Amino acid sequence: MTEFLQLQVKNEDKTINLSFNNDILSFEMKKKNFKGTNKPISIPARNILSVTLNDSRIIINALVPKDKLKLKLKTYSFELNDERAAQTWKDTVNLAAYKDAKKAKHLKVFINPIGGSGKANKIFNKIAKPIFDAANCTYDITLTEHSNHAKEIANKLDLKPYDAIVSASGDGIIHEIVNGLLSRPDALETDIPIGVIPAGTGNALSICLLGNDYGNSVPHATLNIIKGVPMKIDVCSITQDEERYFAFMSLNYGILADGDISTDHLRWMKDSRFVLGTIQALLENRNYDCELAMKVVEDNIERIRQEYNNVYNSSPSSITDIQDKPRTLVNKYGTVNDSNPIKEWTKLDGDGYLFFAGKVPWVSKNNLAFPFALPSDGLLDLMIVKRDKISKTKVINILQAFNDASHINMKEVNYYKVEAFRLTPKNKENGYISIDGEKAPFKPFQVEVLPKIINIISVNGKYST
Prior knowledge:
By secondary structure, the chain is an alpha+beta fold. The protein folds into three domains: about 5-95, Pleckstrin-homology domain (PH domain)/Phosphotyrosine-binding domain (PTB) (PH-domain like, Roll); about 105-225, Rossmann fold (3-Layer(aba) Sandwich), CATH 3.40.50.10330; about 245-315 and about 335-450, Sandwich (Tumour Suppressor Smad4), CATH 2.60.200. It has eleven helices and 23 strands. Strands 12, 13, 14, 15, 16, 19, 20, 21, 22 and 23 form a ten-stranded antiparallel sheet that branches. The chain has a seven-stranded antiparallel sheet with strand order 4-3-2-1-7-6-5. The protein is elongated.
């Protein structure tokens, strides 16, 4: 919090005061085509991108509210009365505007040109780029040309020149970046954070960082990259046959996987395609028989809720549950091909409608599937809805309840905190397994959590609920 600081400047031959107090910049501007009262301007320090001096003028770049949810880039330029006083004022405001964040970041940007129905490149250049420029950020841009292109580059890229890697797309490019970074020989020495610009059809990570209202806002997300600091998150290690890959978001078998992957050609319909896919799967009475074994840490929803509240309401620096443990890429529980320690795990055998695991609370806009998911608790949230004694209408009701997370209170929903699980599909040759929204081979797979293994850019060190 800054003490009161005032600077006199001229605006259209009229002297006005630029006041900076309690991290708020305030001044008055003459209303266009209006005689009389001036318009008061108030800008939080967080929204100030840069303050510079140039040719006896002070120039302020900031994001200001356009309406309740939108931000607009604005530049204010004033004539100086006292250049020495202006220098002190500028330095103080810039320091308060960035606090612990690095100024003028140099970014490696991946843009998926077919992301967001082909609009990702336009979204970046028209909205995000001018904001980065106003904050004196620089960037090196790659337009991805094929599947796993971002993974291939992230795996070999010299990271030293960059302050962050930025994805301008949906969650698929983030998945590629994570897998590229974690498959590097120096993965454990790599701490470069990942920033997210929501330019895809699904922007779950951005919604988790900024909330349901702001998660699809490119100006809010760009500001988060400019002003944010690294936050460590857990990542899931998945094995299938002899393959290993990583997921930051979700793992899915059952109706939601069908609704996601089988309607991939309908991505332009956004969230409505999941409803269509789910209804189709229900009408076709598809079989989701499987064997599930899981390393359960907690299965009582009230204790899960209480632990979540305790952690969420703590400052990030006070969370010490796994903070002192060294990072590792070694699977504590082996692979899908190992028999132990599966023998000691909790086992479920049968047919179900929903087998859904997540490391993030929001899986898409208006879908708070895992309200107790934490970025770095070392655990995975796992939700199961069994098929017996539940109607198809009730299944639809459960999925609709994701909107306000009321599904966790339904008796048909079993909600667990687990360290690991193994799922083996049965009685079906062809089906869908979705990992971070991407289609995976329809084979048995095993998942465990690797604590605090990747950094993402966050302002407050928490996921939004």
